[in-house]
Design a protein that fits this description.
mainly alpha; membrane; single chain; LLG1-like; 146 residues; globular; 7 helices; GPI-anchored protein LORELEI
Length: 146
């Protein structure tokens, strides 16, 4: 019975570690877009017309705090954010890219709205901390068992 229990525990721990390894906190993005509140967009930008004034205004309210991350070509924040926007809002592909333009460089965020410009922190930083803690705990458990 002891052998079967040990195999079961190792299987469970391996499954949890694989889950952590594929979770969003390990992704190449300094912000965890999975747990953000998308209702600012989904409550205002509704089809079938998707009015550009409402959709773009809501998009800016949501995205501008993360402008530094979204404009950084060394991470995947922009594609990750758009994936979640489309997941939660079921928007047509390219809706925001085609409708929301203010110039050659895209949308202009008001000064002081970027997270790096404000003292506000997002709730997702809490999730990143919890995920990191869980990863450390499972690492220690694995070291003890193996």
């Amino acid at each position: 019975m002891g052998f079967h229990r040990m195999v079961f525990l190792r299987t469970v721990l391996l499954t949890l570690c694989i889950g952590l390894a594929t979770s969003s906190f390990i992704s190449d993005c300094p912000e965890n877009f999975e747990f953000l509140n998308y209702t600012i967009i989904t409550s205002q930008c509704k089809g079938p017309q998707y009015p550009p004034s409402l959709c773009c205004s809501a998009f800016k309210q949501f995205a501008c705090p993360y402008v530094d991350y979204l404009n950084d070509a060394t991470n995947d924040c922009a594609s990750t954010m758009f994936s979640y926007i489309n997941l939660y809002g079921k928007y047509p592909p390219g809706l925001f890219a085609s409708e929301c333009r203010e110039g050659k460089l895209g949308l202009a965020c008001p000064p002081g709205t970027a997270q790096s410009d404000t003292a506000n922190t997002s709730d997702s930083s809490t999730f990143r901390s919890i995920d990191s803690f869980i990863a450390v705990v499972f690492g220690v458990v694995l070291l003890v068992l193996f």
